[in-house]
Specification:
Radius of gyration: 18 Å
Largest sheet: 6 strands, parallel
Order of helices and strands: HEHHHEHEHEHEHE
Number of helices: 8
Distance between the termini: 37 Å
Length: 199
Amino acid sequence: MVMNDMPPKLFRDAELDLTPEQWATYESAESDGVIQLEELDQALTIHHVFELVLRLKQICNFDPATGSSAKLERLVADMEEVAASGKKAIVFSQWVDSIEKMRPSMQRFGCTEYHGRIPHRKREGLIDQFKNDPNCHVIMMSYGAGSVGLNLQFCEYVFLFDRWWNPAIEDQAINRAHRIGAAGAVTVTRMLALNTIEQ
């Protein structure tokens, strides 16, 4: 009975080519990293592999040297449509650093943030602002802080700026918006850098 009352979840994959700056950094980090892993030989642990995967995933978000980001370019374009239609969106990332790099481009959409660097006493006020301010169209959240306990069923758009390791955590994050009482269908955009570790 409950499921029949729920609006649909619509998934779309934004498959993106890295910017030239990102791609140059990515290829260099990948080849250097693989060489380093091979040199470790018997000393190689899963931790070393994990570190390289983490670094490559972060480059897929932003080029560390120039700040260039194919994902941010796409997010800005999508947010222009969301804001123009008067809707609201949640953007999830694994990393608070990525959220902080998005901030300058997101400010024109009246963005607010919800993550581990936001003091607990301020968080409820930020949610109220996001819900009630018609000029606040986007909240940027870390998976860690925003994946459970929040009811944001007035949001119709969810963007996964990067993918969490565990799909169940992603589902929990998406369900902040896809809940009983949701205004309509929730569109989930999963950003994916082509020809990279993300794919």
